[in-house]
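New to this. Please check this record:
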Amino acid sequence: MRTKFLYFLMLSVLSLASSSCDLEKDVEVELPYHEPKLVVECYLEPGKTIRALVLESAGYFDDAQLPLVPDAEVTIGHNGRTLQLSYKPFQDRNTGRFYTHTSSTNMKGKPGDIYSIEVVDGKGRRVTGYTVVQKKVPIDTVEWKFNEDKKAYLLTTFKDDGNTKDFYRYMTHRDSLMNGSQRDIVTSDRLNNGKIISFGSAYDYEEGDTLIVSLYHIEEQYYDFLSSTSDAKDANGNPFAQPTKIKSSVQGGYGIFTNLAYERKKVIITR
């Protein structure tokens, strides 16, 4: 009986393997056509020159490249005046950011001022957007405490305005802004309206470390943009994550146009 059982088991395995081979089939998936659109990234900073990055979107399976748009014209509007940026690709040595368009004029807007952007190119594509200048939110304290292993945690606190709906981005860098951020938190005051808000860390630091702490008071449209790009990164390559569409703040293309109102402190960890 044992010999017959093994014989029938072998036949079953061979039959299953044979049927599995018959189930294999090559399927050709026709990908939808990707229509290239303008991609715009522009952050206005009070007291600094106005700069923008303009590229062209590419398909997911296209060759990796930097699709520049040399004929793109970028115009910034403020208080009834317009400023056209010059096409002059360069990289900022302080931040490592790459730009394609710039101007020698500094941004002088005050909280509540409205700036607009218009980007057009030779193909007739047009991107528009606007931003409302935010006010700085001061940092109250930046402090740290050591544990028994001579490691320190960092704690940053500030006061939220209870009369407004606010959004924040908190970042810490070690030594230089050129280095990748160690902490990057994007949040709203939905649960802490009008209260003292604190951002902490793990025991990541040692005596002598130099840290750059930045608190950005951001627009809701920038909050949505950052949140959606973070979700998209998490979903990329993850078969169990739901695909996420990036929420742009511009119309007619992709990207973000906003202003950066921030307070920054540089501290050295000491005992």
Observations:
- The chain has two domains: 38-132, 139-245+260-268.
- The chain has two helices and 16 strands.
